[in-house]
Amino acid sequence: MEPSPPSSPPELDAAERIILRWDSTASEEARERMIFEGQRDEVDRYLQAVDEIQRSMSAASLAEDDQAKLNSAIQIAMARLEDEFRNILLHHTSPIEPDSLDPSTSSSHRFSSASHNDHSAEFEVDDDEGSSTPRSSAADDLLRRGDSSNTSSYRSTCSIRELDLIPSDAVVDLRNIAERMIAAGYLRECIQVYGSVRKSAVDSSFRRLGIEKLSIGDVQRLQWEQLEAKIRRWIRAAKACIRIVFASEKKLCEQIFQGIGTAIDDACFMETVKGPAIQLFNFAEAISISRRSPEKLFKILDLHDALFDLIPDIDSVFESKSSESIRIQAAEILSRLAEAARGILSEFENAVLREPSRVPVPGGTIHPLTRYVMNYIALISDYKQTLNELIVSKPSTGSRYSGDPTTPDMEFAELEGKTPLALHLIWIIVILQFNLDGKSKHYKDASIAHLFMMNNVHYIVQKVKGSPELREMIGDDYLRKMTGKFRQAAMSYQRATWVNVLYCLRDEGLHVSGSFSSGVSKSALRERFKSFNAIFEEVHRTQATWLVPDSQLREELRISISEKLIPAYRSFLGRFRSHIESGKHPENYIKYSVEDLETAVLDFFEGYSVSQHLRRRSN
User: Fold this and answer.
1) Where are the alpha helices (DSSP H) in 102-215?
2) The CA-based dihedral angle spanning residues 256, 258, 262, 268, taken in that order and rounded to the nearest 10 degrees
3) What pLDDT shows up at residue 231?
4) CB of 548 within 8 A of CB of 540?
5) Could you tell me which of 437, 442, 502, 432 has the C-alpha nearest to residue 464?
6) In Å, how far are 162, 180, 253, 277, 415 from 266, measured between CA atoms?
7) CA torsion, points 471, 475, 477, 479, in degrees to nearest 10?
8) Closest among 110, 50, 54, 53 to 85, alpha carbons compared
9) How far is CA 101 from the centre of its chain?
């Protein structure tokens, strides 16, 4: 298109009059009315007048006085256009509807911030303190909403959903104004006005999403229980911010500024979202550099997974050179979260090994450490996909050649083919058993020490069997090895307890050689029955208070005891009953029938004192 010739003085005068008519510093009407809210022909006349003046200013033949008049007119026009630009933005800037901000809404629906239908309802959501209460606030509403019935146009690019934030006719007006302000050298003013208005809109969306203005220091001063709820909310909110809010702001910048000048759309976009983006990522950064402790691992992994999923969208939305710092910040936070997860796992291993409690748990039951550690590694196995990528080195372990008595042995040659994560989980189980073995030595009675180890290793085995993911990583070979350990502990318990009991039921020492009697020493036999009664009563009294919490294991152990005790007692009673009953006061020696013992064994390992003495036999 050929450039238009310089304006003739009458055309220039007419253009100047139009500009001066809308000078808000000199006209009440101009202060009260906005050009772009009036008739379109009035809008067109004003834009044409600005074009006339801008073309005339480029003419070399203008006199100095005319040039001064044009400079004054263009300044008035730019001030007016700046006001009009701001007014159009403000008029068409409204909060994005909660339904539109829901990142989980199906992409088959269409959204627009221009829809203002009220679909308010009450939802149960987690608040910052973790309680569950009916709420209808916008922040919780948009985080829990389902599908929406609002309809308008948006462009869907994979997970990114770009809303039409401003109607198309208003976008055309904004672009017309921006072209003229930038052509006149008012780029900085145009960007500042745009950025201030749109940033307030982004801030409004942040408030709806429940994103607080917290510095890194603020975040690190919060209690972990508070942070857990905030992490859940941040993950949901970050998806909406990146994929919807920021992506839509970028689209709007492109609609208004793309092609007008070099990277002006990028400059306006960063003017709008740089502050909010830093605010958004500061939270994740604060978590990534916070003090490490085992309870933080799983929320850190949740945060890592969410950010990992968002990285392609962040790279897409912040693809320009001017927004490189945002991409770098997100990538660095992801790296620090990964390092934090690795560090926490290592610290957890050390904490399990060094857990210092020395007070024996009553009844030889499952130690709280065992429950905690096994529940913890069961949760770890739920995150195996992520952790298999993050955990790439074997654990630092002892070996049979290290000579360190404070660290257990673990030979990797027996575990060939395991992933580094699986080796870490096996190592945690090894050091847990090592710690438990040390704790068992604080029992004064060897029997309960063995029962304690049996209970705890059995619990470990059951937890591994109960988690398909954990069982797959630990492997059946190592599971069989642990099963052998708890069975060995059960056998050791039985030997420690029942050898002395059964020793009373032996024949040795009861027969008298060279006598005309029956060959049985009645006095020795009476003492043998008295010893048996005393020992069994003490075992019964004591071990009824011991606890085997697993009902199947408890029953198996009782059956095993009965299989040894009852036949031996029945045989002993059958052989020697007549020798006692033929003497005085047989009830003082044969206190219990076989049935009495069978019933007594059922009291074992229930975890509470028996309320009555053993039921005496019936004569």
Assistant:
1) 138-144, 168-183, 187-208
2) 40
3) 95
4) no
5) 432
6) 16, 19, 7, 14, 54
7) -30
8) 50
9) 22
- Distance separating alpha carbons of residues 526 and 188, to the nearest angstrom: 110
DSSP class of residue 617? Answer: P
Does residue 418 sit in helix, strand or coil? coil
Q: Rounded to 5 degrees, what angle do the CA atoms 273, 154, 279 make?
A: 20
Q: Which alpha helices (H) appear in 357-475, and where do they start and end?
A: 368-382, 384-390, 420-440, 446-466, 468-474
pLDDT score of 62: 63
Task: Sort strands 132-135 and 160-163 into parallel, antiparallel or unpaired.
Answer: unpaired
Helix (H, G, I), strand (E, B) or coil at 269: helix
Which stretches of the chain score pLDDT less than 50?
1-4, 106-157, 400-401, 515-516, 617-619
pTM of the model: 0.79
- CA 18/CA 29 separation, integer angstroms: 13
pLDDT confidence of residue 141: 39
CA atoms within 13 A on the CB side of 12: 20
SS3 content of the chain, % helix, strand, coil (to 5): 65, 5, 30
Write out pLDDT tens, residues 53-100.
888 887 656 667 777 888 899 999 999 999 999 999 999 988 788 777
Joined together, the tokens standing for residue 592 give: 């219990």
Helices and strands in the chain: count of H runs, count of E runs: 23, 4
- Say which residue the tokens 């030889």 belong to: 364
Per-residue tokens: 289: 């550099």
Quote the CA–CA distance of 450 and 489 in Å, as a whole number.
5
For residue 322, give both structure tokens. 């001017």
Condensed to tens digits (0 to 9), the pLDDT of residues 455-501 reads 999 999 999 999 999 999 999 999 999 999 999 999 999 999 999 99
pLDDT of amino acid 201: 93
Neighbouring residues of 286: CB distance < 8 A, sequence distance ≥ 6: 214, 216, 217, 218, 219, 220
Scanning the structure block, which residue is given the tokens 């909660």? 98
Q: Can you give the pLDDT at residue 613?
A: 53
Sign of CA dihedral 538, 543, 545, 546: positive
Beta-bridge mates of residue 606: 547
d(CA 594, CA 90): 94
pLDDT tens digit sequence for 492-549: 999 999 999 999 998 887 877 654 455 888 889 999 999 999 999 999 999 999 999 9
Q: Which H/E stretch holds residue 49?
A: helix 40-57
DSSP state, 419?
A: -
CA-CA distance, 525 to 608, in Å (whole number)?
33
Which of these, 416, 415, 421, lies nearest to 386 by C-alpha position?
421
Task: Determine how many CB atoms are found less than 10 A away from the CB of residue 316.
Answer: 17
Task: Kindly give the residue spans of alpha helices, DSSP state H, lying in 58-116.
Answer: 64-91, 98-101
Q: ∠ CA 395-398-403 to the nearest 5 degrees?
A: 165
Long-range contacts of 486-494 (CB under 8 A, 24+ apart): 486/453, 486/454, 486/457, 486/458, 486/461, 489/450, 489/451, 489/453, 489/454, 489/457, 490/450, 490/454, 490/557, 490/560, 492/450, 493/447, 493/450, 493/451, 493/454, 493/557, 494/560, 494/561, 494/564
What is the predicted pLDDT for the residue at 77? Answer: 93
